[in-house]
Amino acid sequence: MDVDSLIERVLERSVAGSAGPGAPPMLGRAIRHSVFPGGARVRPKLCVAVAAACGEGRDIEAASGAGAALELMHCASLVHDDLPAFDGAAIRRGKPSVHAAYGEAIAVLAGDALIVMAFETLLRECRASPQALAPLMAILINAVGTPRGIVAGQAWESEPVLDLSAYHQAKTGALFVAASMAGAAAAGLDPAPWRALGERLGEAYQVADDLRDVLLDEDELGKPAGQDASHLRPNAVQNFGVAGAITRLKGLIAGASDSIPDCAGAPMLRDIVHGQSARLMPQSLLRNVA
Predict the structure, then answer these.
(1) How do residues 53-89 score in pLDDT, each as one tens digit?
(2) What's the total number of domains in the chain?
(3) Whole-prediction pTM value?
């Protein structure tokens, strides 16, 4: 089974458990709405790719479970980010955001349920690999909570003074760090050397998101544009200018590739990282700069 299908099957098992007899039907529909159809599934793909790169025969099931758990956390963060209390976005992935489709109360609960579902997914998918569960659980807890997880990242937006580095590391970087470290942990290796890969990829995605927010429109983004300016949030374009942000993005991709530890699949993983540059810097974005 290819990686895309593997991840989607794990996600489907998780989401299916939120519906059925005795379950609130609107909540179940809102949860499904937030997960399917998904985005690029970058975080779970990174997790599985790292596990595969660490050596043939490694525990891809544990890696796909951890990756799917991270994707559910990511979906939860998007549901909460779109709420009126934060960005108030009516569009996400080219369709109504969860609060626009189901109301604010259901959206809050759907986001909460997705975070719980992430841990349930990890427990279920690691039944055949109990030795991997404890390190993977620790990685996920650090990625979602405080002081440096996605909850902390969202909270920075409500602070009177925003620490841009801490904000970006928590809101965007935390799940990328978790994906790279969880892939190594699922393969039975020390996850610490893989932190740098996640940190650099996470920052690259944040810089790219800041560029898109400035240079692309809502139809191209699939979500509202100009959010940083409308909410007076610091961003990479404000700090470096458009050309400087693009240069920084390229440097981060190169740095991510260079940070990959020696392993059997390092060349394959470097190809994957460099392949992300085309996705992060689409020609439509570069044309707007020219």
Answers:
(1) 997 556 789 999 999 999 999 999 999 999 999 999 9
(2) 1
(3) 0.92
Residue reference for tokens 């801490």: 166
| CATH code for position 12 | 1.10.600.10
Place of tokens 């039975």: 188
Q: In this predicted structure, what is the pLDDT of residue 134?
A: 95
Asked if residues 140 and 119 have their Cβ atoms less than 8 Å apart, the reply is yes
181-233: pLDDT as tens digits: 999 999 999 999 999 999 999 999 989 888 888 887 777 777 777 777 677 67
| Domain span holding position 70 | 3-289
112: Cβ–Cβ under 8 A, 6 or more apart, which residues? 76
Contacts of 147 (CB under 8 A, 6+ apart): 170
Residues across the chain = 290
Characterise 2 by phi-psi region: left (phi > 0), alpha (psi -120 to 50), beta (else).
beta
Query: 172: left (phi > 0), else alpha (psi -120 to 50), else beta?
Result: alpha
Distances (CA, A) of 23 to 29, 112, 124, 152: 11, 15, 20, 30
**Distance of CA 284 to CAs 210, 221, 279, 280, Å?**
15, 11, 11, 11
What would the DSSP string read from start to end of the chain? --HHHHHHHHHHHHHHTT-STTS-HHHHHHHHHHHSS----HHHHHHHHHHHHT-TT--HHHHHHHHHHHHHHHHHHHHHHTSTTTT--SEETTEE-HHHHH-HHHHHHHHHHHHHHHHHHHHHHTTT-HHHHHHHHHHHHHHHSTTTSHHHHHHHTTSSS--HHHHHIIIIIHHHHHHHHHHHHHTTS-SGGGHHHHHHHHHHHHHHHHHHHHHS-HHHHTS-S-HHHHTT---HHHHHHHHHHHHHHHHHHHHHHHTPPS-TTHHHHHHHHHHHHHHHS-HHHHHHH-
